[in-house]
Amino acid sequence: MPWNLNSDRPIFLQIVERIQMDIISGKYKPGDKLPSVRDLAAEAAVNPNTMQKAFSELERTGLVYSQRTTGRFITEDTTLIYELKTNLAKEKITEFIALMQQLGFSKEEILSLISDTMKGEAS
Amino acid sequence: MSALIECKDLTKSYGKKTAIDHISLSIEGGHIIGLLGPNGSGKTTLIKMLNGLLTPTSGSLYFQENPIGAESKKHISYLPDHNYLNMNQRVSDIIAFFKDFYEDFDENRAYDMLEKLQINPRDRLKSMSKGTKEKVQLILVMSRRADLYVLDEPIAGVDPAARDYILDVILSNYEPEASILISTHLIADIENILDEVIFIQNGTIRLTASVDDIRANEGKSVDALFREVFKC
Amino acid sequence: MLGKLFKYEFKNTAKVMLLIYGMFAAITLLGTFVLSWDSVQKEESAALNFMLTALIVFYILSVFALFIVTYVYMCLHFYKTMYSGQGYLTHTLPVKSSTLFHVKLATSMVWMVCSMALLILSIFLFVLSASHGEIFSSGLSAELHQVSLEFEQELGMSLGTFCVHAGFSVLLSCLSYLLWIFTSASVGQLFSQYKVVAAIVTGVVLYFVEQIASLIIMFTTGYTASMNETTVSITGINAVPAGSGADSVFPALLGNTYIWSILLCLVYYIVCRVIIQKHLNLE
Question: Residue B83's CB: how many other CB atoms inside 10 A?
Fold first, then answer.
């Protein structure tokens, strides 16, 4: 099945994000081998050059490294992955706070809403 | 990488009517390019000229630095937008025919793809449904290891599942050095596999850009941009 | 490449052609069988006569059918593979357009010649069975010699030479008939609409042009004038010296006809080649 990709943002960025999610969520474990550009491009139904661009971006940030003859692998650097995870979380939280503030909530209200919701889920 | 296709001031006119009006463009290897434009924009005319089915009125058209002729046809694989095979023949006969004339034809690839679709090579084309016929024609074209593939409306009139299959065939047979030129007006379905687009209207080129640039700079999809550029 | 083109061209046309040949061969065999059966019968019978007449009529019809079908099929095949839907397949093959044209023309000629050979064979078989082998008796060679002499008187050449010329003329006219239709089809496809109508109109126009031109030739070689003289000598008035009008005219007429035919074929050929190489207009 082709991946669900947004039509108005560059595709390679969306691919980068998706693979980042896969790394964070553990679908790709540290040291795992990534599928080849061609295979993943065919699976995602995207242009191989675009997939290549995404891979290059991931290599640039160090999340992925390539070994010339064997292929591409997820980094074993768990600190890096944790950093990615935390940065993503901070990003989402900032977005969330901004949205809440847009709705008119103050910072204290936001915090109590969050703990109430989480308590509710726990019980 | 030297240009695969190089055309300068290319013109094709029929009497008073000009189908292609002084077009200059160059296409490099290693891309999947969308030739996009409304009906009557000159897409098919340009494609026919690339394949030696029409002669230009003026200007130059070169493929791998050679003029269009028997030599260029060895390296271009073309899928027209209508049935072009002898319907009385069996699929296996047509495969033998392609193998005889095209050095770059990969018979095993063709048989593999047919098997995956459970198409019997001993069947005659005329006994197949429209969708199956089109898939066979696509398989034949994509089984060649050509330097340029030209697909004229490969997904028009085809159901969504078949469309996915066709895009999959295109992507899995992709050679990094080759280019695929797809002419279509069903942009939304094909956008994700393109990396370059050419907008054409009234025989002139309105725009050439990479898909990523369009999305980054215009903040919209190629399909949306198309609607804007070619608004009626 | 050339060999492959020929291989496929023959392969694709063989099915229909062999079917036609098979039917014609069957009719011939039936005919020879009836004829030899007839020769065995001592009494006349109405049924047998009827069968014979029917057979002869049927045979003549099938001779016409053989040639017409061969010719029409070659023309249709040319149009279908060069200018119709299949034209896309034909013209994207990695061969020169001129090569394509040559192969198609050559293949069509081969089938026409085969049809002719089949016809001659069939007539020979008929004659053989009708005369129950008497053909090979000694009386025949004397007959042939007499006919040959008369030929020389009337036409100014021996029977043998005449046959050679006849064969050559037939080949030339096969070629020009084929090229006539091929040219009409090629001109027709130049139009963006009503291609078939345009082809037919072209064919008709070319036909009239051909007819008028050959009439002019006949007049210029004084054919019509000498016709009168020849008729006189045939009716037995031997006062007219043998070969007065005829032998000065017939070879000349033949020569002029050859020149005209060859010229016509050449013109048609050039037109076809130019159109195929530079003015292809597939739908």
Answer: 17
Q: What angle do CA C75, C78, C81 make, to 5 degrees?
A: 145
Q: Which chains touch C (3 or more CB pairs under 8 A)?
A: B
- Provide the chain B residues 170-199 that lie in CB contact (below 8 A) with chain A: 171-172, 174, 176, 188, 191-195
What strands, in cross-sheet order, belong to the sheet with B196-201? B76-79, B148-152, B179-184, B32-36, B196-201, B204-210
A60-to-A57, A66, A75, C194 alpha-carbon distances in Å: 5, 11, 12, 62
Do residues C132 and C9 both lie within one domain? yes
Can you tell me whether residue B54 is helix, strand or coil?
coil
DSSP letter for each residue of B114-180: HHHTT--TTSBGGGS-HHHHHHHHHHHHHTB--SEEEEESTTTT--HHHHHHHHHHHHHT--TT-EE
In whole numbers, what is the pLDDT of chain A averaged over residues? 89
Task: Please tell me the total count of domains within chain B.
Answer: 1
Closest CB to B171 among A1, A11, A41: A41
Domain extent, residue A53, equals 11-76
Cα(A84)–Cα(A90) distance, integer angstroms: 10
Residue C215 lies in domain = 153-283
Q: Which residue has the tokens 């070659």?
A: C74
Take residue B21 and report the two structure tokens written for it: 């009006």
Task: Please report how many Cα atoms fall inside a 13 Å half-sphere around the Cα of residue B216, on the Cβ side.
Answer: 10
pTM for this prediction: 0.85
The four Cα atoms B71, B76, B78, B84 give a dihedral, to 10 degrees, of 30
DSSP conformational letter for B218 = I
* Judgement on whether residues A44 and A92 belong to the same structural domain of the protein: no
Q: Which residues lie across from A71 on neighbouring strands? A: A67
What is the number of alpha carbons within 13 Å of residue B144 lying toward its C-beta?
A: 30
Contact (Cβ atoms closer than 8 angstroms) between residue C74 and residue C111? yes
* Chains A and B are in contact, defined as 3 or more C-beta pairs closer than 8 angstroms: yes
Q: Render pLDDT for A13-46 as a digit per residue (tens, 0 to 9).
A: 999 999 999 998 888 888 889 999 989 998 999 9
In Å, the largest CA–CA distance within chain C is: 69
Q: Is A12 on the interface with B (CB under 8 A)?
A: yes
Same domain flag for C263 and C161: yes
How far is B71 from B67, CA to CA, in rounded Å? 8
CB contact under 8 A, B212 and A50: yes
How far, in Å, CA of B180 to CA of B50, rounded? 13
pLDDT tier at A70, thresholds 50, 70, 90: confident
Mean confidence (pLDDT) of chain B? 91
Q: How many helices (H) and strands (E) does chain A have?
A: 5, 2
Burial category of A118 from C-beta neighbours within 10 Å (exposed 0-12, middle 13-18, buried 19 and up): exposed
The complex's ipTM works out to 0.90
Same domain, A97 and A64: no
Rounded CA-CA distance C159/C89 in Å is 49
Taking only the tens place, the pLDDT of each residue in B181-196 is 999 988 888 999 998 9
Locate the chain B residue with the closest alpha carbon to C91: B53
Per CB-CB distance under 8 Å, the chain A contacts of B113 are none
